[in-house]
Design brief:
single chain, five-stranded parallel sheet, 16 helices
Length: 324
């Protein structure tokens, strides 16, 4: 944050950089947001911030040093530490300096980010984060993108994070021309998977992890956010011409058709070169290439019937099938 402020004082014109019609992939975690985003950014016309760029954005990246910047090795050491401590991490979510990264890291500069709640159990901070004003975090998010494009020109940003599901109205206040792709999956499968992910992240940092408390926290968090999404849709408070919904099951069945649906919804050209790169990417990265991620809702200590009732409104609105 200090480095960012110093850079912006030295080059105030950075804040005049335009962020034009960014595309966001969001949805509850473990609904396919990562693989969908990874496939989309195979298109050379789209740009996602990489892990090292989000952890160390200043000075702005340059094409000439894109492969040799010393910050890459520093970020790689930090991000790969997770899998070194807990080898199961790669099967759940692979982190790396050169991988596209969730843009919630840009919000961490304002200290308003689930990047912290995922790694550490600080209940008072988690409670504050749920009720705080997220506009300052999105203002920093915008500044980070402005810095990242300062020396490379304005790209078509393709961004991704489940956290945007909690703050769609704020996101649209900061990025009024944003386009948003929302992914959907059985909430009970989501809860089993996200609890496993967060528990493993916390085991990297702590010897004491309360698995049941993590499950309860995310059940409450995503019930609130998914129910609010239904309300926003029903009241017409989201721009229908810039919003696209997709199901995890549909992506698994035909990933390229799921991608084409997003291009059609947002009026983007899908060139043959881009589709060929997407196809090659999928072929080179089969599901479970790093091992199978095993998890179960029944391990969470939650009441199945009660959770089914809580998420019934969401399921019905978006026709989300049961996987359990």
């Amino acid at each position: 944050r200090i480095h960012m402020r110093d850079y912006l004082r030295a080059d105030p014109g950075t804040l005049d950089e335009e962020i034009r019609a960014p595309i966001f992939v969001t949805g509850a975690p473990r609904t396919g947001t990562t693989i969908l985003h990874d496939v989309l950014v195979q298109d050379p016309a789209l740009r996602s911030p990489l892990g090292w760029e989000l952890l160390r954005p200043v000075p702005p990246p340059e094409a000439a040093t894109a492969a040799t910047d010393p910050r890459i090795a520093l970020a790689e050491a930090e991000l790969r530490m997770l899998a070194r401590v807990d080898p199961a991490m790669d099967a759940i979510h692979e982190y790396g300096a050169r991988n596209p990264k969730e843009c919630l890291s840009a919000m961490s500069f304002e200290l308003r980010s689930e990047e912290f709640t995922a790694r550490y159990s600080v209940p008072s901070y988690a409670a504050w984060l749920q009720r705080c004003d997220m506009r300052p975090a999105y203002a920093w998010h915008r500044r980070v993108l402005q810095v990242l494009q300062r020396r490379s020109g304005a790209p078509q940003w393709m961004l991704k994070s489940p956290v945007h599901l909690h703050s769609l109205s704020t996101l649209l206040d900061v990025y009024p021309d944003a386009r948003i792709a929302v992914t959907h999956r059985d909430p009970l499968r989501v809860l089993g998977s996200v609890t496993s992910l967060v528990a493993n992240l916390r085991w990297v940092h702590s010897e004491k992890v309360d698995f049941a408390a993590i499950a309860r926290y995310h059940a409450d968090l995503y019930h609130g956010s998914l129910d609010h999404l239904v309300t926003l849709e029903e009241r017409g408070w989201l721009p229908p011409d810039r919003l696209q919904h997709g199901h995890y099951a549909d992506f698994l069945a035909d990933p390229l058709e799921a991608v084409r649906a997003i291009y059609r919804a947002f009026g983007l050209p899908l060139r043959q070169e881009a589709e060929a790169r997407m196809r090659a990417y999928l072929a080179a990265r089969p599901k479970d290439q790093h091992g199978e991620h095993r998890y179960s809702f029944d391990d969470l200590g939650l009441d199945r019937d009660a959770e089914q009732r809580r998420f019934a409104r969401y399921r019905e609105r978006f026709r989300v099938p049961s996987e359990t």
